[in-house]
Amino acid sequence: MMSSPGTDLENEEIRSMYDIETSKLGEKLVIIHRIIYVGCLKKETENGLSVAGQIQTDIANLRDKDDETLSGLMLMFTKHFIQILECSEKMIVNVARYLSSKNKSNLVQSAKFISILHDIPQRLFKVVHISALDIQDQNLNSYQPTESVLKLIIETVTQMLKLGSQIVKLPKAEIVKCLENLHGEHPELLPQQAVLNYFLQENNKTLMSMAHFVDLHDHPFDVTFESGIQQLVTRYPKQKNVVLKGPS
What we know:
By secondary structure, the protein is an alpha+beta fold. The protein has helices at residues 7-11, 17-25, 48-60, 89-99, 149-167, 172-180, 182-185, 193-200, 210-218, and strands at 33-41, 71-76, 80-87, 108-117, 128-132, 221-224, 230-233. Strands 4-1-3-2-5 form a five-stranded mixed sheet, sandwiched between helices. It has a two-stranded antiparallel ribbon with strand order 6-7. Strand 6 and strand 7 form a beta hairpin. The longest helix is centred in the middle third of the chain and has 19 residues, at 149-167.
């Protein structure tokens, strides 16, 4: 029995070009993104390793699938922290939502992105490395930069990536030792706490807060093309290696 014209088309699932291309490979493509963000705890801690571990556990619980791989590096000071995280695009939004949450159980007071790199060719890390650094900086609030914010951002991102490139070459047993001795042996690879604090100051609007990022994601706007077709467009940047700017 022949089907009537149009029946097959009506019943056939409409597939995007992405679905068509990935089906040729027999599996879904895994697209990885790399984000770097800075944050400040609600209060100073003497047990940075435990606090960092709790934050990473919370982030791991945000995954849609337990087998989704998260990798990166987190440096935890007594109150400030900086992290590289390699993850899916959806996890970027989930992490931003978590870090901007006002939930009492959330240990983080504030956080901002300093870099987002989309569609990286490969991971730099295999797992998430954590290091707690018991370093006090007495000049946090009196710090006055002599360089532009953009240059400070580039230097900080460069430090983190260079540090990551160094530790991934080491045997697993030596990575912890290297991170513990970072301040004494490789201070040039250690971001300054005063700079991290400066990034997070309210009057510094060069960087985008997590709350603003979530707002841009949750409230897309309409774009009308010349053809007259309207499409909802997410407003956060999709370019590679962007520095996110806050509201003017």
